[in-house]
Design goal:
The structure holds 2 protein chains of 2 kinds.
Chain A: H1 3-7, H2 15-34, H3 40-65, E1 72-75, E2 79-81, H4 83-102, H5 107-112, H6 114-132, H7 137-155, H8 162-193, H9 198-204, H10 214-231, H11 239-246, H12 249-274, H13 279-302, H14 307-327, H15 331-359, H16 374-377, H17 379-393, H18 399-413, H19 417-442, E3 448-450, E4 458-460, H20 476-494, H21 497-507
Antiparallel strand pairs in A: 1-2, 3-4
Chain B: H1 4-18, H2 27-49, E1 58-66, E2 71-77, H3 79-100, H4 107-126, H5 130-139, H6 141-151, H7 156-184, H8 196-201, H9 206-223, H10 233-239, H11 242-267, H12 269-274, H13 276-294, H14 300-320, H15 324-353, H16 372-385, H17 392-407, H18 409-434, H19 453-468, H20 471-494, H21 498-504
Antiparallel strand pairs in B: 1-2
The chains are: A mainly alpha, B mainly alpha.
Chain lengths: 515, 513
């Protein structure tokens, strides 16, 4: 029975290149099994430690595999490891680690069961890594489903909160529509090109397939729409604020940075590599999408009072900025995109960490008022938030400035100077809502009048909602994430060269752009 | 001498102050005050050591900062920025002194922002790399956002938000312009560089120059503020605490004008000569509008605020006359105006302290007899403001007008009206506060030697010193200012119409990108 199978040529597998994925899958299974053990120690300490260990191991292995300029097929024509995949995998791992830390005291953890929660998180990360390493349309789709399905469940994991369930359902419906659209698009591209491998499509385009082939163009349009759902690019962004607000905040943070990075990984692979020859066809459309996204996201964010919704809209706007790096289809654009994704991870996680710390103790939840007077009450939270907001707005001495600088540089260099101006215009609008957050934290009233005996007014310095639980170090892991991310944001704003070295390696990873 | 030392001392002292434990908050003021003094001493040493015969930059620091993007950490001093750096160091010291003599809520945060602000402003003046300039130019906004928003009065949060949005809209446009300038001027196969010297060597098509010029002009004119871009000024000036207002009006407003001389004229000479008329019109309208508004205001701060618009109009006029005398006058006038405005705002703060915090001219008056020292100091500053012959401002304005008369006589004639108008608003301000009947809010008393004098005296003394010996500045600025405008002046003399300028500016370049 076994003999006939032995004759089937098995694909060549490079186990070294595959090792991060193996570690992830192994860790996922381990966490799921360990969760069967009852006991406080296992549920509260062992499972998060195992999850962190898995992510840490995968991260270490990724760094071990790292060799710039190398495109190694790890599973022939299905998965390929290169600097682009590895650098974005680092984003997923760091986001995963941050999520584990941020979720440590989350209600979702006890509602859904810690084991399930961590397992779902790890499988979503696995899906993202698979997606970033995808070398053909099938793996792409498998990756995107593997990342999405656990996220639908994670969104609904706070089962006792209606908003969470609603978010899960909404994300499931919209996400499925997005996936279906993408799949349809991929099918049409396959129909036109006759191959599922990215390299094959690249070769076929303009050679055996006409660039004006309606099948191909429809396929590109549908795939683009599907990916736009995942990356929350307007006009496919409507789900974002609702789902972000409804989902448990650690999950929101994870979605905001990791899902976005994964979606852009595939934007880069599909458009800047497989479909690069058709750039003339898709680039104007993507540029238009970027413009719409920047405007819609920034305008939408202005009126928000909930911090999570505000960050959701700001995420939409930021997706527009990042898309500019994809549009230009140059090596510089690729580098700028990855650079911005790395920086975006730091700034956004810092912001979400502060939101999490505050919503657990403040009567205002994730409302803007939860931050009132934070500068005086909890500087360890107020400073990270301030830095995150200034960085998202693109102030200098933060990594956000350099990231934006790089994106505009790439846009102008790729003959899309007007897109650079659109980015700048978007940043102007964004000041309104980012600065409002800073103002709420630092610029509250100096003194408040206390009720007192007539004739003798008493005043006191206000400390908004202070209580022992509200102290920044009552939740040390959350504060730690916020401070670490904010410090990194500052550090890379002043000394960005390590990141530049990293993205210089990434720049060589898409063969179609080198030259 | 390394320029990084005076540049980063204030920030370092501010950071130290920020990190002090809660119990040692009182030490914050000493730390930052010490930092500003150290910088001031260093800058005075630079003034002495400056080689006025040298043509190029002195004490150059040049390191690669971000190699991939062609950004250098490049600092240098020449006749153009020497005195602006000096006046920055002086005013920050004086303001730190003024602040240290008063109590502030959250002192650590306050002094940290003060230190950061000084580093950012000095950085903008010293930067010899366009991207570095943009970094410091935008960075300036952060401390001022906090200084106005946290320690201001009245509608401070709205005012500071308006201020930051207005100015950042300008500077973000400049950011786009700067990147475009760097990328588009890179020759094919060449390495991108934002170093000013490199940019100056590289050529750019005339059409490109024009739109980049407009982006830069937006940033610099908002910062100044010049006439149609001054919408943020009244609210912000009303809300800002005195020492911050001195810095805002005295120093921040000069960064824009300085940017024209340092960056725009040498790098975009073609566009500068094409758009010369536009800038001159803005300058002259600013002079007239600012002067007229200044003598119709009731709020003493806004009288000074609008007079600044007029003064900045003069400076812009001097720069865009594209004449050596005009440019030199502009540089001198920047220094003078910084000193004068500092004096005026301090005096107004002292007056407000004697009149239940009222700054309304209606409710002031009659202080002179009860406050002779204050009145005398105020008179010196007021006479300098209206450019009395014998004051340093007279030297500045006369040079600017000479420059304008040489090149564009019409604008010179209209601008001369501004000199007369300056007399009107300066004397009105003095009379309404010092003479007349004692105002309803006034509780007469002279200025305090302990609280007020340490800040006001140095400003007035420097003003007097410059009045006696203006050559000290003239001598050191002449060589550089002439070279900075040379390219643009040559372009404007070369051809009668903009059409031929366009073709001579290298039309083939237009298709370069």
């Amino acid at each position: 029975m076994i003999l006939p199978l032995a004759d089937v040529p098995a694909p060549h597998i490079d186990y070294k290149g595959l090792s991060p994925l193996i570690a992830l899958v192994g860790g996922t299974v381990l966490v799921l099994m360990a969760a069967l053990l009852r006991g406080r120690f296992v549920q509260r300490s062992l499972l998060p430690l195992l999850t962190l260990g898995t992510l840490g191991a995968a991260m270490g292995l990724s760094i071990w595999v790292w060799s710039p300029g190398d495109h190694r097929p790890i599973v022939e024509s299905a998965l390929e490891v290169d600097a682009l995949a590895l650098s974005l995998s680092l984003v997923f791992y760091v986001a995963g680690i941050a999520t584990v830390l941020l979720a440590h005291r989350s209600a979702a953890l006890s509602d859904a069961g810690a084991g399930e929660y961590y397992t779902l998180l790890l499988s979503s990360v696995t899906g993202m890594v698979l997606l970033a390493e995808a070398a053909n349309l099938i793996t792409l789709f498998v990756g995107i489903e593997l990342l999405s399905i656990p996220l639908y469940v994670l969104c609904a994991s706070q089962v006792r909160r209606r908003a969470s369930l609603e978010a899960g359902l909404k994300y499931l419906v919209i996400g499925s529509v997005g996936s279906a659209t993408l799949l349809y698009g991929l099918a049409l591209i396959y129909g036109a090109a006759g191959t599922t491998s990215f390299a094959g499509i690249d070769r076929a385009l303009g050679d055996t397939v006409s660039l004006s082939d309606p099948l191909l163009l429809t396929g590109i349009a549908l795939a683009c729409a599907g990916l736009a759902f995942k990356a929350s690019v307007a006009p496919f962004h409507q789900w974002t604020p609702d789902v972000y607000q409804g989902a448990p905040t650690p999950v929101t943070a994870f979605m905001a940075v990791a899902t976005k990075a994964a979606a852009f990984a595939i934007f880069l692979r599909l458009f800047d590599s497989a479909l690069l020859s058709a750039q003339f066809q898709w680039a104007p459309a993507l540029a238009a999408l970027a413009t719409i996204t920047i405007v819609v996201g920034n305008v939408g964010a202005i009126a928000q009072d909930s911090l999570k919704r505000m960050l959701a809209w700001s995420g939409v706007a930021q997706a527009g900025y990042i898309l500019a790096g994809v549009v230009v289809g140059t090596q510089k654009g690729l580098e700028a995109t990855v650079f911005y994704l790395l920086v975006y991870l730091l700034m956004n996680v810092a912001a979400f960490a502060v939101v999490i710390a505050r919503e657990r103790v403040s009567e205002w939840g994730d409302g803007m008022r939860a931050l009132e007077g934070l500068g005086r009450a909890a500087p360890w939270l107020a400073w990270p938030m301030t830095i995150a907001m200034l960085a998202l707005a693109g102030f200098p001495a933060t990594a956000g400035f350099i990231g934006k600088f790089y994106l505009i540089d790439a846009a102008v260099d790729g003959d899309y100077a007007w897109l650079g101006v659109v980015i700048v215009a978007g940043s102007m609008i964004s000041l309104v809502y980012y600065l409002r957050v800073v103002a709420v934290m630092w610029m509250g009233p100096m003194e408040v009048r206390l009720p007192s005996l007539p004739g003798r007014p008493r005043t006191a310095k206000p400390v908004g909602g202070w209580s022992p639980e509200a102290d920044a170090w009552a939740q040390p892991e959350v504060t730690l994430v916020a401070v670490a991310c904010a410090a990194a944001t500052m550090f890379f704003g002043i000394w960005p060269n390590p990141l530049f070295d990293l993205v210089a390696d990434v720049g060589t990873s898409l063969a179609s752009l080198v030259g | 001498m390394s320029l990084s030392i005076p540049l980063f001392i204030p920030l370092a002292s501010g950071l130290l102050a920020m990190l002090l434990p809660r119990g040692a908050a009182w030490l914050a003021r000493q730390l930052v005050l010490g930092g500003t003094f150290a910088t001031l001493f260093y800058v005075v040493a630079m003034l002495v050591d400056f080689d006025s015969s040298a043509k190029g930059l002195q004490w150059v620091t040049r390191e690669n900062w971000i190699e991939t993007l062609g950004i250098h950490y490049s600092l240098g001093v020449d006749g153009l920025n020497l005195f602006l750096i000096a006046v920055t160091a002086l005013l920050f010291t004086v303001c730190a002194l003024w602040s240290a003599l008063r109590e502030w809520d959250r002192p650590r945060l306050y002094y940290f922002n003060l230190g950061l602000a000084e580093t950012a402003v000095l950085g903008a003046f010293m930067a010899q790399d366009l991207a570095l300039f943009v970094v410091f130019f935008d960075l300036m906004l952060v401390p001022f956002y906090f200084l106005i928003g946290v320690w201001g009065r009245g509608e401070r949060v709205q005012a500071t938000t308006k201020f930051v949005i207005y100015t950042l809209v300008g500077s973000l446009l400049m950011l786009a312009g700067a990147i475009a300038l760097g990328v588009l001027s890179t020759p094919d196969g060449g390495q991108i560089s934002f170093e000013l010297a490199d940019l100056q060597r590289r050529t750019l098509g005339h059409g490109t120059q024009v739109w980049i010029f407009l982006l830069f002009a937006a940033a610099f004119l908002v910062k100044a503020p010049a006439f149609p871009f001054h919408g943020w000024m009244p609210d912000t000036y009303r809300a800002t605490p005195t020492p911050v207002l001195v810095l805002l009006s005295g120093i921040l407003s000069k960064v824009g004008a300085y940017g024209f001389l340092r960056i725009v004229l040498p790098i975009l000479p073609g566009a500068s000569s094409t758009l010369q008329e536009l800038m001159l019109v803005i300058a002259v309208v600013s002079i007239l509008y600012g002067s007229v508004m200044a003598f119709s205001q009731d709020d003493a701060r806004l009288v000074v605020g609008y007079s600044s618009i007029a003064q900045l109009g003069f400076i812009t006029l001097g720069i865009f006359a594209l004449d050596p005398k005009g440019a030199q006058g502009a540089v001198i006038q920047m220094v003078n105006h910084a000193l004068v405005v500092a004096g005026l705002f301090f005096v107004i703060a002292v007056i407000a302290g004697r009149s239940r915090e009222s700054e309304s001219l209606e409710r002031l008056g009659g202080l002179a007899l009860r406050a002779p020292v204050l009145a005398a100091l105020f008179l010196i500053v007021a006479l300098a403001t209206l450019a009395m012959p014998g004051s340093p401002n007279f030297v500045g304005e006369i040079l600017i007008l000479f420059g304008a008369f040489d090149e564009k006589i019409v604008y010179g004639l209209v601008a001369s009206a501004g000199v007369a108008l300056a007399a009107v608003y300066a004397i009105r301000l003095y009379q309404r506060t010092m003479h007349n009947r004692v105002g309803p809010d006034v509780e007469p008393g002279d200025l305090s030697w302990r609280l007020d004098m340490p800040a006001i005296a140095p400003v007035v003394l420097v003003l007097l010193a410059l009045a006696l010996y203006p050559q000290f500045v003239l001598h050191r600025t002449e060589a550089t200012t002439t070279t900075k405008i040379a390219a643009a002046a040559a372009k404007s003399h070369q051809t009668p119409g903009p059409d031929r300028t366009a073709s001579s500016a290298g039309a083939p370049d237009q298709s370069q990108k």
